[in-house]
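Complex record, two chains
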Amino acid sequence: AQKVTQAQTEISVVEKEDVTLDCVYETRDTTYYLFWYKQPPSGELVFLIRRNSFDEQNEISGRYSWNFQKSTSSFNFTITASQVVDSAVYFCALSGFANFGNEKLTFGTGTRLTIIP
Amino acid sequence: DAGVTQSPTHLIKTRGQQVTLRCSPKSGHDTVSWYQQALGQGPQFIFQYYEEEERQRGNFPDRFSGHQFPNYSSELNVNALLLGDSALYLCASSWDRELNSPLHFGNGTRLTVT
């Protein structure tokens, strides 16, 4: 069975501070994918990043960066110089490898991030 | 380029009633997945449709059923509604030939059962 744990339920930081959202996962699959999604108040889940289990390189995209460590089964997300527009609920998700299409996503319970102006 | 569209946006039903939610996938996508998101929780996988058939199913009772049409749009039906069915129902689409691709989600339908 797959499981994703986001221990931080809510985080509040002052604008321009850096913030890290934690994600720990469990899976017996040797090949799998990890995702981060952002959910603004509108409800739509917005894709941020996908990582496969063979690629442990950290990734940076503008103010966003991700740290994937298989040894600790973690896939953490850092926002540098946070902005009010970053306020949302962030979900970490896990899927197995699909031979066709997509495997189902297993989501964590999410972290509500509030950026205080 | 239209994204994933869902209707209605909000819905209020009474216990025991039946409900149908609708989803049109992003242009070019042929696979539709449905997720249920209870308040304060992460989305949970209900099922996935491809080529008008259910291809994968999560741990949901048979009261939850679906359908996919030849134009790839999809419906989610829930019978004998329970209070616990109150949630945000999210539809996501993808293209079957792009393996393990990120899903594109709609804004969801907020279902309230009273």
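Note: Chain A has a mean pLDDT of 94.
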